[in-house]
Specification:
Blueprint lengths: L2 E7 L8 E7 L8 H14 L22 E2 L2 E2 L21 E5 L8 E3 L2 E2 L2 H8 L22 H11 L6 H5 L6 H12 L8 H14 L10 H5 L7 H18 L1
Parallel strand pairs: 1-5
Antiparallel strand pairs: 1-2, 3-4, 3-5, 6-7
Helix pairs in contact: 2-6, 3-5, 5-6, 5-8, 6-8
The chain binds iron/sulfur cluster and FE2/S2 (inorganic) cluster.
């Protein structure tokens, strides 16, 4: 397969960016999208040009690193698919493909397709954990019964890979889907109850401090999320946040 790639190139956070056109030829339809960029980068290096910088790690849909817009869609045209799991057979031979980085004020561009997503790490640090009692009376985790529906829903929330597609897709650059998944995965389990309200409050406040936008319920985040995180988690987080505020006033 042959493609014309239009890729965002930007030398650094403060440099002006531009779309640059690259033809690629001899691409197998079984290659992943990242392998196709590897082929391009191999060509660029052989010609003495700078390869395209892009994030990746696991290449199996787990780490959330392979974040990019492909033809205007986060992680490309397929639903429930990360860029690393997207195959070139999803495109037409001869197609022109536009490849851009996430665009959000809270995700400054570092270089080319690589953005700084450390704002999400700071949201996690503000409350995405449970404190463990190490007094000698610690209950073994396996001794805590958890209803199956709660375990299933917590597991679904925990599937969030922190890729940031929800933020990049949202017209407000809101991180509500990401934060609500991280709040929910603990709020649904008995281990997460003692800090439940404080957690929702501090993670939402950190989210606002990082410059993410507000949620206006467009639902675009849910559509583009590669692991199918549900908007229901946002409703749960909003309830916990409100309860936290009311509890403080009372
Ligand atoms: S909620 Fe979905 S889109 Fe957002 S960071 Fe998590 S996995 Fe990515
Ligand atoms: S490289 Fe890890 S999810 Fe794509």
């Amino acid at each position: 397969m042959n493609f014309t790639l239009k890729i965002w190139r930007q030398d650094g956070p403060k440099s002006p960016g531009r779309m640059v056109t690259y033809p690629v030829t001899g691409i197998s339809d079984e290659m992943s999208f990242l392998e196709m960029i590897d082929v391009l980068n191999d060509q660029l290096v052989r010609n003495g040009d700078e390869p395209v910088a892009f994030d990746h790690d696991c290449r199996e849909g787990i780490c959330g690193m392979c974040s990019m817009f492909i033809n205007g869609e986060a992680h490309g045209p397929n639903r429930l698919t990360t860029t690393c799991q997207l195959h070139m057979r999803s495109f037409k031979d001869g197609e022109t493909i536009y490849i851009e980085p996430w665009r959000a004020a809270a995700f400054p561009i570092i270089r080319d397709l690589v953005v700084d997503r450390s704002a999400m790490d700071r949201v996690m640090q503000s409350g995405g954990y449970v404190s463990v009692n190490t007094s000698g009376n610690t209950v073994d985790a396996n001794a805590l019964p958890i209803p199956k529906p709660a375990a299933d829903e917590a597991f679904q929330a925990a599937a969030c890979i922190g890729c940031g597609a929800c933020v990049a897709t949202c017209k407000n650059a809101s991180a509500m889907l990401f934060v609500s998944a991280k709040v929910s995965q603990l709020a649904l389990l008995p281990q997460g109850q003692p800090e439940r309200l404080n957690r929702a409050e501090s993670m939402v406040e950190q989210m606002d401090l990082e410059g993410f936008g507000n949620c206006t319920n467009t639902g675009a985040c849910e559509v583009e999320c590669p692991v199918g995180i549900s908007l229901d988690h946002i409703a749960r987080m909003n309830r916990d946040f409100l309860h936290a505020k009311v509890a403080k006033k009372g």
